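TL;DR need structure tokens for one chain.
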Amino acid sequence: MPSLHTTRLLLKKLLLAAVMLSAITSYTQVIPPPGLQIGSANTATADPTVPRPNTTPCTVTLFSNIAFADFSPKLFTFTPPSACAGPWAKVVLEADFSIQAGRQFDRTANIWIGGTNVYFGTTSEPSAAVARSWHIERDLTDYSALFNSTQNGRVDLGNLVNSTFTSTLFGTAQLQFYPLSRHEDAPDTADLVLPLSGSSNGGTVFLSNTGSAVSATFNLPTNVERAYLDVLAQSQAGDEFWYTCVPTDVANELQSCGGTGFRETEVTIDGQPAGVAPVYPWIYTGGIDPLLWRPIPGVQTLNFVPYRVDLSPFAGVLSDGQPHQVSVQVFNANNGFSTTATFLAFLDHGSTQVTGGVTRNTLAAPVPNVTENLSTDASGNITGNVVVTSNRSFSIEGFVRTSHGRLETSVEQNIRFSNRQDFNITTLAFLQNITQNTSISLLTNTRGHGGKTSFQTFEWPLSLDFNFTVNADGSGGFQTTTIKQAFNNSQLIKGDGPPFFSTVSNSVAPTDTLLFDANFRITGSRGQANSQRYFSTDSTGACFSRSIAAAGGILTSITDGEGCKSHNDD
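>> reply
TL;DR here they are.
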């Protein structure tokens, strides 16, 4: 079998061919959500809506204009659309949230159907004079089996409202079911959609340390052909700013959290390593400096994207008629991570019993490398850096004997993580500059009937420069924060037909300086600005490009299509 590096070079040639195909194909724009307006202080994102089929959808309202002013779950009942029986061409969740003007923390929001998470994100913070509203969407077509029967639903959006935190949140959500057009084949969707959650009607599980887990034991059918796990692990409490954490032995002197700046989600089956879901460094709208995120929030802040782990090499094991436990843990969790996952099983409809096994598994626990290069002078000033890296590759292979022959699946993954933090700490200043990146290469080969090769890459760069300085005369000081954050993903799929290529690039770049007086009360800010660029394209010719910018908390520009035009001119 060729190495991951060799395969990457080969697929880069196919990638180039797919890009050229995209460049010569007339592109279509996905219509972005309405409501962006230059001069507005309302929440603004460059994210596109989910592409839709041409058929007319049936809409099922999940809940409407619910007020969130306490921490009680809000319950609803989902009933399948009687006028649009499945299978469906596409299923899309739409939700609209708003918050009153006033004072409020960012809050976490979850929507559950049948105990399965269908939305996970956080909320915008208001300002004293500005109420905010925002729209989110998620493609749930893969979860279609979940919507074939009446299910209990639940919304979690805990919110404290009192004389200090004065703003109530409101939410409305619906599912849109798009029928198949005439002669259209149904999409390949999971036969089983099963939750790893806190209870039968949903809820995340808080993982406080490496040993904590969210688990579920499944008694699966004996004809599982493929399996996947969608993982969501949200940093909270002491881990909210995990990318700023340092080795525990220097945490006190560096005035930071411990456990190093490395976190990673591990997946096991029956206690054996089965997959890895790297943790994306989401930053919420109250993070570090709330003014940074007005009106543009961070990447995916309002709508997290789950990381999908391919468990297909274990299909034969999962089909042996015995109960199997699937678990998710967060390596280095340091109080902690709010976590859930969804198990997706695709069955062999031509038989009731498949057999198989795992033939190779080199995945083991991560062993990050930590270096400290710090010095303290006679005055107690601290300079230097701390670095944590984790570079590893693994391969998992398995097979399953199906009604259409033997299928062999291999998953090869390379994950390179680095977090470097440079410090300059004196009696008058605290400087912390962070450069972090997660680079992922994932090659999946399926050999047999309908076999294909899938190659994905992810790049998740984050740079964060923080400078807190006190004036020598004691009159006050300032805090300057500059952040660059991105989510980049490319995928190439090669099978019997033409290769399919897609790419997504989403980045934000905020900056702000808070001013404070001698009593450390904030007196104002200067230089506040933010921008977001979202670009996506694929080998069918679909293309979306939007860039937005803001200054002083106000949206100042909207540029549509420019990236697609330059892409087609290349």
